[in-house]
Write a structure and sequence with these properties.
The complex is a heterotrimer of chains A (189), B (440) and C (345). Chain A is α+β, with helices and mostly antiparallel strands and 189 residues long. In chain A, helix 3 packs across helix 4 and helix 4 crosses helix 5. Classes of the chains: A alpha+beta (189), B mainly beta (440), C mainly alpha (345).
């Protein structure tokens, strides 16, 4: 009884739907809306990623434009070079996108200062075996070393060492602790 | 006509045949003795009574020999010693053993003995009886200095174990392990050597920098390990008796994962001197290196198989770490593990029956083993942050490091995953256990 | 369920109704056809409906004529006088006819007397003639009679002689015939007796044969019956033996399982045991289940393993064994236990 009512209701809805479907053919509003959404995301992304302010109009009469530019860049580079720890995902040695500018800055600094040496200390989180983590820490340090060399540093300036899981930055067995322990630290001497 | 003839000839033949059949039936009936097949044994450990030894002369303070034997046998997981308080009598020699009494107590074996002090030495005279067969299966004497009562007790345990199980006991073997105390600049890394029950522990090396991967030489006289004392991983060989130590691998990059060959003449090492982690064989006498692996992936944690020719190792050449076996240097490695995406640090037993390793299952790390005959994998441990498996020389026990309330501890389990016990807590984190060889 | 019942009820009543309906319909149809047929038959020949004349009408009584009372009385008297006159006339006639009849009777009687007298006279004359003739005839007859009697006597005498001779002859023939008959009868009797004897012999022979056959058949039947009985007995015995065997076997299996269980609990395979190690221990028991002897008959090659087997076998203080002595003797007096681990710890 109930079922038949439902069936009837369903049948009615179906027929109504069919009618509605018929009536809505050719409506392209949704497509348009979806398209605009995607575009908006792209534009937003584009604006945040690429939309950097170009010149702030600060001027100094005593410094030449070039000097000012160099000073500004140096300040920026120094700020970037404050970052000396680079993080990795579990069981990988892939340098993350956000680390690249910083590492480029370090590489240029090393290139500009040939007598400056750096020690790359590779680490892993506590999970997995110690020896494998030792190799994994080394691979991470090597990945950073290659990046620095590619970006101007010379091999002779760089020393790598892996501590594996032996020297965690943070104690504990949590995701956050592990994330902070999977790292390469740059130690300038 | 022929048929008739043959019939006439056949008659006695069939009679003879019938008689033969009857005879055979009778014979078979006579021979068809009942055969009952027993294909399963008791699930529980073997009941054994270790009767407190009779003593003559002053004995050193501390644990009694019989109680050390009792705890050794308990630790093995294969014995279930009877509480001395439940014993009906305390015999110390054969004439005092009433088998019926022990049978009534459900005991299969009875160990009795006498200790005699003579000067600085303690002599033990001990006998092991099979209660059901009413036979003495062991009768020996052994002695040790009064300060080495534990050595004497472990020796007796080994003898009892072997007499009953047919396998050598491992109660006289040693453990090497690393403890860590403090943090940062206050961190202290210590390399210990102790009895297998964790007693009589002695620090062999103390460092502010990490100590890793202790490995026993086959004669049990030397330990190889990785020390960061120079700021980077370097492999040392440490002679225990003298305390002398020397660097055996100090190449650029990694110097790690030492593993002695069964003949003690060479060891496997993981070196990254040629770019990335590869396994090399170091001839100890000459210092010559032979490259065993050559792959862009990480190859490490080499271990000799029971033949002393092939090796097991960890490689992430397939994406994540997995166990491989290689017949000889440069041969095509064969992948052993497939059960999960993370399997590392292989430790084969001495018989070539199983290989043990760290095995990730979901978020937990366990110790698992693969049956090398049929490839079946089984997870042995129930704890969840398990590392550094090390198999006892007789293949019956496994020690590994795990976490207990945030602190590293060592746990011993039956190699098949049965009985388990944790070694007594030491100060700080305990890690990197290495089970020493049986020293004759 | 209720709906279903209702349904079955309705389906039940339907055939009940339908014949009635059918019959009514059929009758209606027939009537209809009849009516149709009625109307179809030529209406021209239809006779005038008789219903008009058939209408019931009671006839009206005729009104009686009004007559004078006096008038009727006179007429009655007249009628009586008339009748009296008619009666007197008829009486006179009757008397006249009686007189006539008496005169004719007297006439007829006179004629009859005359005829009778004539006839008497004629009759007497005839009698006299008859008597004369009779006398003549009687004399002639007496003479002829004497003559005939003489002849008759002669003829009778000859006749008697002939008869006597014939009789003798007949008697002789008779005698002969009788003797012949007797002889024939004796022959027949002899033959009959012979035949009877032969038949008797034959019967007896057949009887004997039949009896022999029957005896043989009986013997055969006896034989086969005995065989059948023997066979049945043998089968019965075999079945009993089998049942006993089966009982012993099942009994044996039960205790085998018990022993297996007890030994499995009592056996501690040593750690050095492998799945290809097999040790066999032969044991001897007392009927009480106590172990008399245990002997390693096949070694595994591993002393600890062999010892574990021997230890297990000896550890049972008393073996579970059947109380039935035959089963015990057959299976459990001495048997072998094989130790071969299949699922090592």
């Amino acid at each position: 009884m109930k079922l038949s009512v439902q069936t009837k209701a369903f049948a009615m809805l179906l027929s109504v739907g069919l009618v509605a479907g018929c009536s809505s053919t050719g409506d392209t509003m949704e497509d348009g809306a979806y398209g605009s959404d995607v575009a908006a995301i792209d534009q937003d992304g584009g604006s945040t990623v690429y939309g950097g302010a170009d010149g702030d109009g600060v001027s100094s009469s005593r410094l030449s434009e070039e000097e000012r530019q160099a000073a500004r860049e140096q300040a920026e580079q120094e700020a970037l070079r404050n970052i000396t720890t680079f993080y990795f995902d579990f069981d990988t040695s892939e340098i993350k996108q956000e680390a690249r500018d910083v590492l480029v800055a370090h590489a240029q600094f090393l290139a500009n200062n040939p007598r400056q040496n750096v020690r790359l200390e590779g680490h892993a989180d506590e999970r997995g075996t110690k020896e494998y983590n030792l190799a994994l820490g080394e691979r991470r340090a090597n990945a950073v070393q290659r990046f620095l060399i590619v970006n101007g540093a010379s091999r002779g300036q760089i020393e790598t060492v892996s501590y594996g899981e032996e020297k965690p930055a943070v104690r504990g067995s949590s995701e956050s602790a592990w994330a902070q322990n999977r790292r390469v630290e740059l130690v300038f001497k | 006509m022929n048929a008739h003839d043959s019939y006439r000839q056949g008659f006695p033949f069939t009679t003879a045949l019938a008689a033969l059949v009857v005879l055979m039936l009778l014979a078979s009936q006579a021979r068809a003795e009942l055969l009952i097949r027993i294909t399963e044994g008791a699930d529980s450990a073997i009941p054994i009574a270790v009767v407190p030894f009779a003593e003559s002369g002053a004995m050193p303070a501390g644990d009694k020999v019989s109680s050390i034997v009792q705890s050794d046998l308990t630790m093995s997981g294969e014995f279930r010693p009877l509480e001395p308080s439940r014993m009906l009598s305390l015999p110390s020699q054969r004439s005092e053993v009433y088998f019926r009494d022990w049978r009534l107590l459900g005991q299969r074996y009875v160990l009795v003995g006498q200790l005699t002090r003579s000067g600085d030495r303690i002599e033990a005279r001990y006998e092991l009886f099979d209660v059901n067969r009413e036979e003495r299966i062991l009768g020996e004497t052994a002695g040790a200095s009064a300060s080495n009562v534990r050595t004497l007790a472990h020796h007796i345990s080994d003898r009892v174990y072997e007499a009953i199980t047919g396998d050598p006991g491992v109660f006289s073997t040693k453990l090497a392990y690393v403890t860590v105390t403090g943090d940062g600049d206050n961190a202290r890394y210590r390399l210990h050597v102790s009895d297998v029950d964790g007693k009589r522990s002695r620090i062999r090396l103390e460092s502010r920098e990490p100590i890793l991967s202790p490995a026993w030489s086959p004669d049990g006289k030397q330990l190889a390990y990785v020390s960061f004392e120079t700021g980077k991983p370097v492999v040392f060989v440490h002679e225990l008796a003298s305390g002398n130590r020397k660097k055996v691998a100090d190449f650029p990059g990694l110097n790690s994962a030492p593993a002695w060959s069964p003949d003690g003449k060479s060891m496997l090492l993981t070196l990254s001197k040629d770019g990335n982690a590869e396994i090399y064989r170091l001839d100890i006498a000459s210092g010559n290196l032979t490259r065993m692996t050559n792959h862009w992936a990480i190859d490490t944690e080499g271990a000799w198989d029971h033949t002393g020719r092939g090796i097991y190792f960890t490689s992430d050449r397939s994406g994540g770490p997995q166990i491989y076996h290689m017949d000889r240097a440069g041969a095509e490695p064969r992948r052993i593990t497939f059960g999960s995406r993370y399997n590392a640090r292989p430790r084969p037993d001495a018989k070539g029956e199983y290989v043990y390793y760290v095995h990730q299952r979901e978020r937990a790390f366990h110790i698992a083993r693969t049956n090398l005959k049929n490839g079946e994998e089984s997870v042995i441990t129930r704890t969840e942050s398990d590392e550094s498996p090390s198999v006892s020389p007789n293949g019956r026990l496994l020690i590994y490091a795990t976490q207990q309330n945030g602190t590293g501890v060592l746990t011993v389990v039956s190699a098949n995953g049965g009985a388990a016990y944790s070694l007594p807590a030491s100060d700080g984190d305990v890690r990197e256990p290495a089970w020493g060889p049986i020293v004759r | 369920m209720k709906g279903h019942e209702r349904e079955t009820i309705s389906t039940d009543t339907a055939p009940l109704k339908s014949p009635v309906v059918m019959s009514v319909a059929l009758h209606l149809l027939i009537v209809g056809i009849a009516l149709a047929g009625w109307s179809w038959t030529s209406p021209i020949s239809e006779p005038e409906p008789r219903t008009i004349s058939a209408r019931l009408v009671s006839p009206e009584p005729r009104p009686s004529p009004v007559v004078d009372e006096q008038d009727q009385r006179d007429r009655e008297q007249e009628r009586r006088q008339q009748q009296e006159r008619e009666r007197q006339q008829q009486e006179a006639e009757r008397r006249r006819q009686q007189e006539e009849q008496a005169r004719r009777e007297a006439e007829r009687q006179a004629q009859e007397q005359a005829r009778q007298r004539e006839e008497e006279r004629k009759r007497q004359e005839a009698q006299a003639r008859e008597r004369a003739e009779q006398q003549a005839r009687e004399q002639e007859a007496a003479r002829q009679k004497a003559e005939a009697e003489a002849k008759e006597r002669e003829r009778q005498r000859a006749e008697e002689e002939r008869k006597r001779q014939e009789e003798a002859k007949r008697k002789a023939e008779e005698e002969k015939r009788r003797q012949e008959e007797r002889r024939r009868q004796e022959e027949a009797e002899r033959k009959r007796q012979e035949e009877a004897a032969r038949q008797e012999a034959e019967r007896k022979r057949q009887e004997a044969e039949r009896r022999l056959r029957e005896q043989q058949l009986e013997a055969l039947a006896d034989e086969s019956r005995r065989e059948r009985e023997a066979e049945a007995r043998r089968q019965q015995e075999a079945a009993a033996a089998r049942a006993r065997e089966a009982q012993m076997l099942s009994e044996s299996e039960k205790y085998q399982a018990l022993i297996r269980e007890r030994l499995s609990q009592a056996w501690y395979p040593p750690s050095s045991a492998t799945e290809d190690m097999t040790a066999r221990v032969q044991i001897t028991l007392l009927p009480t289940g106590e172990l008399v002897n245990a002997r390693l008959v096949s070694s595994s090659g591993n002393t600890a393993f062999d010892n574990s087997a021997l230890g297990a076998v000896r550890s049972l203080s008393r073996y579970p064994i059947p109380s039935d002595r035959d089963t015990f003797e057959r299976y459990f007096r001495q048997f072998t236990i094989e130790f071969n681990p299949q699922r090592l710890r």
